[in-house]
Amino acid sequence: MAEAKRTKVDEPNLERLLGLESSKIGFYSEVKQKINELEAANLELRIKTGELQAVFDAISDSVVIYDHRGCVQHRNRVSPHLFPTETTIGSCCKSLFHPDRDQAPESCPVELALAGQDSQISFSLADRIGNNRYFDVTATPIEDANEETRALVFIRNVTDKRLNELQLLQAEKLSSIGLLAAGVAHEINNPLTSVAGYSEALLRRFRDNEALTSDPRLQDFKKYLEVIIRESYRCKGIIDSLLSFSRKSEGAVGLVDINEILGEVLELVRHRARNERIEIRELFKADLPMVKGDASGLRQVFLNLTMNALQSIEGPGNIEIATVEHDDRTVSATISDSGCGIAPAMLEHIWDPFFTTKEVGKGIGLGLSVTYNIIKMHGGKVFVESRHGEGSKFTVRLPICQP
Amino acid sequence: MGNLQSNMQHCKFEVPEIIFGRGLLNQIGACARRLGGHKVLLVSDQGLFSAGWVDKALKHIVEAGLKVVLYDNVTSNPKDVEVESGALEYVRHGADVIVGLGGGSAMDAAKGIAILVSNGGRIRDYVGPDKIIRPLPPLVLCPTTCGTGSDVSQFAIINDTEQRCKLTIMSRCVAPDISLTDPDTLETLPDEFVCTTATDALSHALEAFFSVASTSLTDVHAIKALRLVSQSMVEAVKERRPQDLENLARASLHAGMAFSNSLLGIVHALAHPIGGLYDANHGSINAILLPEVVKYDIPVVTEKLPELAWGLGRRTDGNVDVASDIIQEILVEMLEAAGAPRSLRSIGVKREDLPELAKRALKDVCIVTSPRQADAQDLLAILERAY
After folding, report:
1. Does pLDDT of A403 surpass 80?
2. Contact A7, B371 (CB under 8 A)
3. Mean pLDDT lowest for which of A43-57, A334-348, B165-179, B355-369?
4. Nearest-CA distance from A20 to chain B in Å?
5. Which of A103, A143, A296, B184, CA to CA, is 20 to 30 A from B15?
6. d(Cα A123, Cα A158) in Å, to the nearest integer?
7. Do A16 and B133 touch (CB under 8 A)?
């Protein structure tokens, strides 16, 4: 056996194996690193969340997210403006889509989405002053973190669009009726002219021919002819109104002062108002800009509206006529009365030709449709606010003349 | 650290939290819970399962309010593939604390699993210095044999099945957080394992005592371990009295604390490649090599011999020569009385492999702290004598 030699201690090696540095790796640095990573991730999440919220809030439609129980979980900034109470956090889909029923109808978009179906519906809602607002709704199922189904609901306010559509429809209807009426009126005019002409000729013969007058067998004829003539002219009157309703304006177009026109109209109705103890208040804006238009047409419009106002008042009452200048280069005249108002069901029909609530013989239901037509030709608008039993307020809005 | 022998101001002694006592296996769940775990991967082997200890451990873990997944496919000389499939179980079930219950094999497998689940890769990637860069999951180790020391050490020895060698992983990271010893578990340990694991503890204590990195802090544990083994090993094998078994469990713990902080020597440097090549019992290999290596070392550790003899229960009045003889005598006597194998041939080692084994032993980390220098020739000579 070789000589026994002590091991030469390999210091660095031993230091590595047993030295002060050799110890367990602590968790602290690892944990600290994890915390740092998480904090960075958290910050990023917060930024992302903020961004998403900003996008969410910038959407001009109302966006509402309903949780799996059908209660509002999130909503964007527009929602409370459109639906102050119906979309508060936690409120149920019932309050917006079926306030009158506890059991959700099959058409409830939220319930459909929670059942996994996309849906699109439209609905309308009366606001606090009774105006109808129209909404289009798109509902889509989305999942939440716990894999529960939620409903993502977009609600677009389409009131203006819908009203425009309705008005367009109305205008179409009116113009077709107008064309029809004009044709019919012409056709009737000719025979009526013959009827009236021959009747007048017969009447002249009666006046000029003694023999006929004194013939006892014909004693009632003169009276009959007078009735025929009178009724023919009454028919002609109706047909003239119809023609004026449907006729393209033939009035001379010039600069018109609405205040002046209203003054003329009031002259015509003042005596009647006095008789019926109706007070008329005039709130005219001084120096009202002129509009470009047909004075006689506008005169007819305001006469119609004022007469309607007078007729709607039973016994004492008051009418207020006001003119206003607006920022959008329009002027408006409002005629408010304290009369009987218009029933909501009637509101959509008042512009229809031949629609009237007056007794037979008192009106033929063309006033407002003529009014509507004339204002439309002037590029203006006419609309009404009315509370049944409290009165109505008609507003005519016209563009002012561009210098 | 500097020269550990000459410079006693520089020494480091590191052990995990240690819990020792009969019946304390019932603390196994509480320990895992204390480390912050919610779901335990219990790593064990079939022997423990048959003896009923796995069921007891499971019960205690569940009683502590934890969930538990059992992985008991560990075999002796744990294989890299076993460690990999254990790591898969850990990840698949979302475990967050590892409890090893068994001998060195189960505990080393638990360590290997802990490395893979936190650092990734394969076990062979972690041989060598500072390969573990991330902290391991909490680890509780419960030895059920009386020799391994794995429950306090920074070693994990895993067999590489492709290269047929032992991978020695050494890192403080694989020392467990808690070492929990319940000596009662030794009562079901088969006789031959009482013997071979006790000889493992004996070789740990002796090699730690002779190590160039030994300090007074490790010496007290080494001597205490030697004392307990010399008192109880033979008795424990023959009579299996609970007190003797408990002494051996305690010896194993002290020996483990010693070698964890002083490292080992030629016995283990040679035993690792042999175990890798033949899948032979580690304790048996140590028992065969120990007398030869002690004989080889004695000339260079003469100043330590009297203390060692005293530890083995003999007074020598400081006479080195007497001590030297006595030590070798007692050692051989003890091993024979306990029925330990005495030759490499008897455990299946082939003679033609000896040069290769000697060459591999030179690369083992344990050679670094051997008190006497050895080259391949010296190692081969030791192997020949032990053959």
Report:
1. no
2. yes
3. A334-348
4. 6
5. B184
6. 10
7. no
Note whether B135 contacts A19, CB cutoff 8 Å.
no
Q: Counting beta carbons within 10 angstroms of the beta carbon of residue A207, is it exposed (0 to 12), middle (13 to 18) or buried (19 or more)?
A: exposed
Structure token pair of residue A168:
């367009």
CA distance A84 to A102: 21
Is residue B23 less than 8 Å (CB to CB) from chain A?
no
Q: What is the DSSP string of B284-337?
A: HHHHHHHHHHHHHHGGG-GGGHHHHHHHTT---TT-HHHHHHHHHHHHHHHHHH
pLDDT of residue B7: 47
A87 and A75 in contact (C-beta within 8 Å)?
Answer: yes
Digit-coded pLDDT (tens) for B12-56: 899 999 999 999 999 999 999 999 999 999 999 999 999 999 999
Nearest CB neighbour to A18, from listed B1, B136, B175:
B1
Q: Give the residue among B363, B4, B70, B383 at the shortest CA–CA distance from B212.
A: B4
| Element counts in chain A: helices (H) and strands (E) | 12, 12
User: With the C-alpha atoms ordered A106, A111, A116, A122, is the resulting torsion angle positive or negative?
Assistant: positive
Residue B4 contacts A where some CB pair is shorter than 8 Å: yes
Q: Output the pTM of the full model.
A: 0.62
How far apart CA B169 and CA B266 sit, in angstroms, is: 17
Coil, strand or helix at B142: strand
CB atoms within 10 A of CB A89: 10
| Whole-angstrom distance, CA of residue B70 vs CA of residue A389 | 86
Inter-CA distances, B26 with A151, A303, B19, B244, Å: 53, 105, 12, 22
**CB contacts, 8 Å: A6 with chain B:** 212, 300, 371-373
Looking at residue B10, what is its pLDDT? 74
Chain A residues whose beta carbon lies within 8 Å of the beta carbon of residue B263: 17-18
Quick check: A281 pLDDT over 80? Answer: yes
| Cross-chain Cβ contact A25/B371 below 8 Å | no
Alpha-carbon span A237 to A240, nearest angstrom: 5
From A31's Cα to the closest Cα of chain B, the distance in A is 10
Which residue of chain B has the CA closest to A12? B2
Per-residue pLDDT tens digits for A389-400? 888 999 999 998
Phi then psi for residue A338, to 5 deg, are -105, 35
Return all residues near A351 (Cβ < 8 A) that are at least 6 apart: A170, A174, A368, A369, A372
Asked if B78 and B112 count as a contact pair (C-beta separation under 8 A), the reply is yes
CA distance B112 to A130: 78
Q: Residues A185, A243: contact at Cβ < 8 Å?
A: yes
Which residues of chain B does A16 touch, with a Cβ-Cβ cutoff of 8 Å? 129-130
What pLDDT was estimated at residue A249?
Answer: 47
Each residue of B78-125: pLDDT tens digit?
Answer: 999 999 999 999 999 999 999 999 999 999 999 999 999 999 999 999
Q: Which residues of chain A lie closer than 8 angstroms to B370, CB-CB?
A: 7
Give the whole-angstrom CA distance, residue B112 versus residue B160. Answer: 12
Check B263 against A8: CB less than 8 A apart.
no
Question: Does the pLDDT value for residue A248 go beyond 60?
Answer: no
Q: Give the residue from A9, A16, A12 showing the smallest Cα distance to B154.
A: A16
- The CA distance from B50 to B44, in Å, is 11
Select the residue of A4, A11, A25 nearest B300 (Cβ to Cβ). A4
Q: What is the pLDDT of residue A243?
A: 67
